Amino acid sequence: MKVGRQFNTLTFEEYMFFIDNHKKYSDFNTLGLYRSLIENPRLDENQRILVRDYANKKFEKTFQFLQVKDPWTFIKVKTLGLELTKSDKDELWRMIVINQEKILRDKRIKHRNFGEYSKHNCGYETCPMNGMMIKQGSYFAEYEMCIGNVNKRLREERAKDRKLDRKRASLIINKELDLSTREK
Question: Which pLDDT tens digit goes with each residue over 99-126?
Fold first, then answer.
């Protein structure tokens, strides 16, 4: 059988039903379950916390591995209903790094070619390779510069914008100079 719906459209009772009967569904996705807790508009905060705690009882190992696979989702789900200070966030990240190393060592995994670490993310929003699955250490991951891959139309628009900004700046400066000379 298949769930046939996105998790972020489920109600509280449906979450509990699908978690209890997860083995019957071939398309049950625990990562999708945890991500949907953040996105689901049908659940209030208390229900999200109850679903998270109930899912953690069933999928404890999966939730712990989420630290390695998708640390951002792990943090968002773990801190549901909590208000964190800067020091709390820093401590949480420090613990995640320690737990990631421990989990990878215990599972004898010597690479991170899964989850967020398997996708290209150079930091440029216009990069055509953003989100592409890559192998760590490959030419695309290590040596490819993505700055030149921005399409021509976008480069021309940015050049026009910069030119207009320069003209505006010089106009403002000239106006200020004219005003100051008039006052004297």
Answer: 888 887 888 876 665 655 556 666 666 7
Retrieve residue 106's tokens. Answer: 């215990």
User: Measured between alpha carbons, how far is 50 from 72 in angstroms, rounded to an integer?
Assistant: 20
Listed by start position, the domains of the chain span 1-107, 111-148, 150-183
Which of 22, 119, 108 lies closest to 69 in space, CA to CA?
119
Cα 170–chain centre separation: 41
Phi, psi angle pair for 157, to nearest 5°: -65, -40
Return all residues near 45 (Cβ < 8 A) that are at least 6 apart.
80, 81
**Number of neighbouring beta carbons within 10 Å of residue 45:** 9
Please give the distance of CA 119 from its chain centroid, rounded to a whole number: 11
This prediction's pTM: 0.59
